[in-house]
Amino acid sequence: MPSVPQYRPFLACFPYTTDNQSKKENKRTVEKLYKFSVDIGKIRRLKGWVLLEDETYVEEIANILQQLGADETAIASILERCPEAIVCSPTTVNTQRVIWQLVCKNEEELVKLIEQFPESFFIVKDQENRKLNIQFFQELGLKNVVISRFLTTASNIFHNPVEKNKQMIRILQESYLNLGGSEANMKVWLLKLLSQNPFILLNSSAAIKETLEFLQEQGFTNFEILQLLSKLKGFLFQLCPRSIQNSISFSKNAFKCTNHDLKQLVLKCPALLYYSVPVLEERIQGLLKEGISIAQIREMPMVLELTPQIVQYRIRKLNSLGFRIKDGHLANLSGTKKEFEANLDKIQAKKGRPLFNPVAPLNVEE
To answer: By the 8 A CB rule, do 66 and 75 touch?
Structure first.
């Protein structure tokens, strides 16, 4: 390999070099942005390099947004949050517009998406891949609203060649069938998995195979592995066997249980596989500090899905109603925010209920 110099100039570590610093702002760009009521100061603070570019397309990009129905306020917001939009050529932006309209045909909704996720819209590379992947996802049966969510929050999957994404889908389908899943349920399972975690497409086929083999070696049946995949929304494939093994070993020691008992705990709370050892340790210690025992956690391991801050908040709420969590079951503590609030309402209603029914007739002798 070629030798690497031991030292480099300090400024070489930064893309914004003295060459850029010595350049002056493009006066025409600044004037045109002012025309659209854009906060120039905000751009200078966040992405000042855009103002130094010799060639920009402020009016052209604004016109495209206007054609979609964006008002002045929306245009200003988009250009402030994503000023690099003005260095994109109008041709590529128009192509992007056509591609996004494949899944978002309502222009008003499209403008809202662009205003909310301008960086995703103005990523104008790999446009042919993007178009072919959208068509492939539509053929799979994914709804346009789900695909539009992918465009805004999981744009990386569209950089994959469509053949790679097709290959990953085939591997997931084969894995599902090999684990005992039925052909009839496979499509529903696959679409649900993709909608919950599109990043699964960024995995490698070798990683998926390795993870499945590791779980089988740990004694999980095919049916149980399918359960884990569904409950963890496919995030299990993003873990390496070594990290899973570390979490399993820690949990086994923390709960003083056998391999069989630990497997039952994992099936109740698959997050035991997903969370790293430091996270599990922090959450168990947080529960112990609140007076909750290891035995209680073993009985309701799902409580480990809550952060220590959420646990403290919920315990205070329960204590205010006279419910001592450390003396009872943790069912009232765990669950989603909606489930916890419903439990609070039930406890409060029970507490305020009279000991006798005031409208019921009393059996007394006259």
So the answer is: yes
- Cα(287)–Cα(331) distance, rounded to whole angstroms? 14
Question: Residue 267 is which amino acid?
Answer: L
pLDDT at site 352: 62
| Across 73-93, average pLDDT | 94
Residue partners of 58: CB distance under 8 A and separation at least 6:
29, 32, 33, 35, 36, 79, 86
Question: What's the Cα-to-Cα distance from 69 to each of 65, 152, 224, 247, rounded to whole Å?
Answer: 7, 19, 51, 52
Tokens of 312: 């403290």
Contact assessment for residue 74 and residue 66, using Cβ atoms and an 8 Å cutoff: no
Q: Say if residues 197 and 229 touch (Cβ distance below 8 Å).
A: no
Q: What is the DSSP letter of 365?
A: -
What's the rounded Cα separation, in Å, for the pair 217 and 165? 28
pLDDT interval class at 18 (50, 70, 90): very low
Give pLDDT tens digits for 21-40. 457 899 999 999 999 999 99
> Is the alpha carbon torsion for 291, 296, 302, 304 positive or negative?
positive
Q: Does residue 199 sit within a domain?
A: no
Mean pLDDT of the chain: 86
| Cβ–Cβ < 8 Å for 78, 72 | no
Instruction: Assess whether pLDDT exceeds 60 at residue 362.
Output: no
Structural domains counted in the chain: 1
Whole-number pLDDT of residue 1? 39
Domain containing residue 93: 1-124
Q: Which backbone phi and psi does 214 adopt, to 5 degrees? A: -65, -45
Tokens read off for 349: 């209603």
Answer yes or no: is 216 within a domain: no
How big is the CA angle at 57 (ends 28 and 96), to the nearest 5 degrees?
165
Domain-embedded: residue 141? no
Q: What is the pLDDT of residues 189-213, one digit of tens each?
A: 999 999 999 999 998 888 888 999 9
What's the pTM? 0.78
For residue 230 the two structure tokens come to 């569904």
* Rg for the chain, CA atoms, rounded: 28
